[in-house]
Amino acid sequence: MEKVELFFIPSPLMGHVGQMVQLANLMVTRFHHLTVTVLIMHLPTDPIGTDYTNSLDDHHDRIKFIQFPVMDPDSFPDCPTVGFMADAIIERHKPIVRELVAARFNGSDPAPRLRALVVDMFCTPMIDVGKEFGVPTYVFFTSNAAFLGIMLYFQTLEDEHGQETPELANPGPPLIIPSYAEPVQPSVLPYVLSDKDAWYKRFIRYTRKYREAKGIIVNTFRELEPHALLSYDDKTPPVYTVGPMLKPEKPTPNNELLQWLDGQPKSSVLLLCFGSRGWFEADQVKQIAIAIERSGYSFVWSLRQPPTENQKGFPREYTDYNEVLPDGFLDRTAGKGKVVGWVPQTAVLAHVAVGGFISHCGWNSILESLWYGVPIATWPMYAEQQLDAHQLVKELGLAVEISLDYNQLNKNQRLVLAEEIEKGIRQVMDNNSEVRAKVAQMKAMSRMALEKGGSSSNSLRHLVDDFM
């Protein structure tokens, strides 16, 4: 079979890079005529992400990485948030990517042929590069099928019906949205859809470009989101479900936290982890600590400090947890739990001692929790996570609720009280709950989807046939 090359262009956001690397691994392992070149952009204000992307190497002879230099963060003075900075970085790399694509057509060696670009959901400017050279471009959508559906639906309301969709977040009756089986409360519409700058300057622009793609690849599986996958209009390109793909982590040999978990009983430990950008103010931290202590459960708590202004939303590590925790908390819980900074989340969720997960409901984290059969208590923070929490709790019955509408960017965000948090902890740690049973069933389905003949395995094969 003819040897062909694919260019993968992930966003500089760490969770997005990891998913695309996993897709590359999956493709070259199953299809020996494919080679993948991954073009890596860096987000200069994210040290953990930069460390992760720098660790990527050519561990497979048919996956190559091109690492672009880190740009000066001070050269982005007009980017108020991480998202706007990522967009600016992507736009600045567009001429560089164009040169790389052009070189594939101007060189003397005809093989392997560049057959397609696969671009992250935020890298839609690169679709123009593909068009210039007649190379089909596919969008890799790192969130779920339901969120893709609401983006497409809102774009249609805007462009064909004149609806200013951010207004739909105003208090009012529940919204009927095609990609969600249950009515959506306006309060769970996330910032990226309800804030006019985020929607008009970023997300509607991405969505319009999705319509131009040859196909859309989604990190989900049919058994998890059957309703959403049947909801798209006839202007949507073909959608390929290839998940669940988990972000590969660096090995963690001799990790003290994992060694401590080795000594804990099965399903006895609660994990609290809120993603690479999750943090709380001191008064909220104290409420969480009170709830943990009252519950009596063993725990691992990834606790990080609010970011400074120049960190563009990425939290810092504490040098002394006592400065934010209640007096004596660390002493009283010394035998029961661990308060730590950044954690190897996938490795922790994979450990048999972990029985519940308080999560920000990022899509990576949700897929990891389902893959390892660990139920979630929802505490969304940013991006599309409020809708993810709604879907898990109200539609799928795969999580319990602490909050559905918490928003880190809301300066008037109410305090979530210890009583509410403790209730969520007890529900998610209940070994006999209906939610735990449903998560166990979905764990089995997630693994079957990737096996030969499974829904995602078949969809991946159809995608590669389309490349050819």
From TrEMBL:
Family: Belongs to the UDP-glycosyltransferase family.
InterPro entries per the UniProt record, alphabetical: UDP-glycosyltransf_plant, UDP_glucos_trans, UDP_glycos_trans_CS
Lineage: superkingdom: Eukaryota
Molecular functions (GO terms): UDP-glucosyltransferase activity
Function (record text): May glycosylate diterpenes or flavonols in leaves.
Protein name per Swiss-Prot or TrEMBL: Glycosyltransferase
Gene3D superfamilies recorded: Glycogen Phosphorylase B (3.40.50.2000)
Alphabetical UniProt keywords: Glycosyltransferase, Transferase
UniProt key word Magnesium: no
Pfam families, alphabetized: UDPGT (PF00201)
Enzyme Commission number(s): 2.4.1.-
EC class name: transferase
UniProt-listed SUPFAM superfamilies: UDP-Glycosyltransferase/glycogen phosphorylase
